[in-house]
Amino acid sequence: MTTEIVLDKTDLKILQVLQENGRLSNVELSERVALSPSPCLRRLKQLEDNGVIQQYAALLSPTALGLGLQVIIRVTTNKTAEARAEFSEAVQTWSEVLSCLALTGEADYLLHAFFTDMNAFSHFIMNVLLAQTCVLDAKSSFVLKEIKNTTALPLNHLS
């Protein structure tokens, strides 16, 4: 049974402000959402406890860290439960892969990954990904330019 969480305008404002800057102190956050610090902290704690706020993280610059090759990889696997389990377990160990999505359609999975260069990418494809017995095929696309990249979820449907 899932409990529906009711968010009011103040909760939504807190979420929007935190998505823009998760490092704000409670005092700064309370000023931005027009609440005093104690009620703001209480609401923030409730949002965390209810799982609306899952975690806080620092977003790093891939290029500043020498990860200039961004790749989208479409993976096709065997269609068995064992293959899905094997692939799901393996992908958890690949630090190059930031996200893995199970898909409908032509490919079974979509990987978003970063590499230092073509040699690192080639090693990953040949010695890691295609070494999985469940993987039948992998097709890659290299990101030429990021047009939009955000971690902020849309909240306008909740207001």
UniProtKB/TrEMBL annotation:
<feature type="domain" description="HTH asnC-type">
    <location>
        <begin position="7"/>
        <end position="68"/>
    </location>
</feature>
<dbReference type="InterPro" id="IPR019888">
    <property type="entry name" value="Tscrpt_reg_AsnC-like"/>
</dbReference>
<dbReference type="InterPro" id="IPR011991">
    <property type="entry name" value="ArsR-like_HTH"/>
</dbReference>
<dbReference type="InterPro" id="IPR036390">
    <property type="entry name" value="WH_DNA-bd_sf"/>
</dbReference>
<keyword id="KW-0804">Transcription</keyword>
<dbReference type="InterPro" id="IPR019885">
    <property type="entry name" value="Tscrpt_reg_HTH_AsnC-type_CS"/>
</dbReference>
<dbReference type="InterPro" id="IPR036388">
    <property type="entry name" value="WH-like_DNA-bd_sf"/>
</dbReference>
<dbReference type="Pfam" id="PF01037">
    <property type="entry name" value="AsnC_trans_reg"/>
</dbReference>
<dbReference type="InterPro" id="IPR011008">
    <property type="entry name" value="Dimeric_a/b-barrel"/>
</dbReference>
<dbReference type="GO" id="GO:0043565">
    <property type="term" value="F:sequence-specific DNA binding"/>
</dbReference>
<dbReference type="Pfam" id="PF13412">
    <property type="entry name" value="HTH_24"/>
</dbReference>
<keyword id="KW-0238">DNA-binding</keyword>
<protein>
    <submittedName>
        <fullName>Leucine-responsive regulatory protein</fullName>
    </submittedName>
</protein>
<keyword id="KW-0805">Transcription regulation</keyword>
<dbReference type="GO" id="GO:0006355">
    <property type="term" value="P:regulation of DNA-templated transcription"/>
</dbReference>
<dbReference type="GO" id="GO:0043200">
    <property type="term" value="P:response to amino acid"/>
</dbReference>
<dbReference type="InterPro" id="IPR019887">
    <property type="entry name" value="Tscrpt_reg_AsnC/Lrp_C"/>
</dbReference>
<dbReference type="InterPro" id="IPR000485">
    <property type="entry name" value="AsnC-type_HTH_dom"/>
</dbReference>
<dbReference type="GO" id="GO:0005829">
    <property type="term" value="C:cytosol"/>
</dbReference>
